[in-house]
């Protein structure tokens, strides 16, 4: 079975509280982009094995796709085994939910492949055990994600917009980004309702005005280059620009493909990986 595991960008990321167990309470608008990994599932007699076309991705229990297979096997009592192959196109540790989307694909794929009969809600509950972004990745599209990532409200699609992803040549640990964040210092939160209105109207000026990521300033303190990448993305004509998730990827949303294509060479400077994609 071959699955497409799509990346996401954050149109917003707000941190609205912290639970006693240390988890941050979030309010995020997430958006799927066309960029995807390919996840290939093959049945084997027993056990779990994993391979990946990129040497820098772990292929043992540390891989979140491996963890997803283990979890769904335990939850369903499945006795057959699985081989997972990942063709990795999504940059790693980039704020694009690269690992989470592979895990979601494994959950969805194995449920269908072995007719396990788990409901969408049950898959989401398993996904949440793996990571805050996994339930959203099971859903996809344009969505408001709240709580620790478990409350998902589908929104009118903001699909069909041209996006350029700019990933500088380093990764950011999600844990470190949240660790450096101080909720008490936040004076102004994201105006999520207004952003939702702008998205529903396809109003790029409004999206530009209201899209915000509260982790951006925190991550910029450690990696100031993110700020200059944002400025360059604006200069190349992007209508909206923001850091996605815990970074370091910065994206630009462009009015049309021609402007975006013209921006690629300029943004590729300084070792950045640059990917042209679109919202779906
Ligand atoms: P998020 O946006 O959900 O925070 P991310 O894009 O920042 O995700 P990932 O690409 O998921 O981060 O990678 C984070 C870490 O997880 C990396 O250090 C990587 O080695 C490890 N990892 C485990 N499984 C995977 C996988 N299937 N794909 C990519 N990275 C993985």
From TrEMBL:
Entry binding sites for ATP: 91-101
Keywords recorded for this protein, A-Z: ATP-binding, Isoprene biosynthesis, Kinase, Nucleotide-binding, Transferase
Domain GHMP kinase N-terminal as annotated: residue spans: 63-141
SUPFAM superfamilies: GHMP Kinase, C-terminal domain, Ribosomal protein S5 domain 2-like
Pathway of action: Isoprenoid biosynthesis; isopentenyl diphosphate biosynthesis via DXP pathway; isopentenyl diphosphate from 1-deoxy-D-xylulose 5-phosphate: step 3/6
Reactions performed catalytically: 4-CDP-2-C-methyl-D-erythritol + ATP = 4-CDP-2-C-methyl-D-erythritol 2-phosphate + ADP + H(+)
Catalytic residues in the record: 8, 133
Molecular function in Gene Ontology: 4-(cytidine 5'-diphospho)-2-C-methyl-D-erythritol kinase activity; ATP binding
Any single biological process term in GO: isopentenyl diphosphate biosynthetic process, methylerythritol 4-phosphate pathway
Name of a matching Pfam family: GHMP_kinases_C
Limits of the GHMP kinase C-terminal domain: 195-272
E.C. designation(s): 2.7.1.148
Function: Catalyzes the phosphorylation of the position 2 hydroxy group of 4-diphosphocytidyl-2C-methyl-D-erythritol.
Family label: Belongs to the GHMP kinase family. IspE subfamily.
HAMAP family per the UniProt record, alphabetical: IspE
Name listed for the protein in its UniProt record: 4-diphosphocytidyl-2-C-methyl-D-erythritol kinase
Source species taxonomy: Bacteria, Bacillati, Bacillota, Clostridia, Eubacteriales
Name of the gene: ispE
């Amino acid at each position: 079975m071959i699955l497409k595991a799509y990346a996401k960008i954050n149109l917003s990321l707000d941190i609205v509280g912290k639970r006693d167990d240390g988890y941050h309470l979030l309010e995020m608008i997430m958006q799927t982009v066309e960029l995807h990994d390919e996840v290939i599932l093959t049945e084997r007699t027993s056990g779990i094995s994993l391979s990946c076309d990129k040497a820098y991705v772990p292929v043992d229990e540390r891989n979140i796709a491996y963890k997803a297979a283990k979890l769904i096997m335990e939850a369903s009592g499945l006795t057959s085994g699985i081989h997972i192959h990942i063709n990795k196109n999504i940059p790693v540790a980039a704020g694009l939910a690269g690992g989470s989307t592979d895990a979601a694909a494994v959950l969805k794929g194995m449920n269908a492949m072995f007719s396990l009969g788990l409901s969408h809600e049950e898959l989401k509950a398993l996904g949440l055990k793996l990571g805050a972004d996994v339930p959203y990745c099971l859903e996809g599209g344009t969505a408001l994600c709240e709580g620790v990532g478990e409350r998902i409200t589908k929104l009118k699609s903001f699909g069909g917009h041209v996006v350029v992803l700019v990933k500088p040549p380093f990764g950011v640990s999600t844990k470190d980004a949240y660790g450096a964040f101080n909720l008490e210092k936040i004076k102004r939160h994201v105006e999520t309702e207004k952003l939702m209105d702008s998205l529903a109207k396809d109003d790029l000026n409004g999206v530009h005005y209201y899209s915000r990521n509260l982790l951006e300033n925190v991550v910029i303190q450690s990696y100031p280059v993110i700020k200059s990448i944002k400025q360059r993305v604006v200069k190349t004509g992007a209508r909206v620009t923001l850091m996605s998730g815990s970074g370091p990827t910065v994206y630009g949303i462009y009015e049309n493909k021609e402007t975006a294509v013209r921006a690629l060479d300029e943004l590729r400077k300084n070792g950045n990986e640059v990917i042209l994609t679109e919202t779906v």
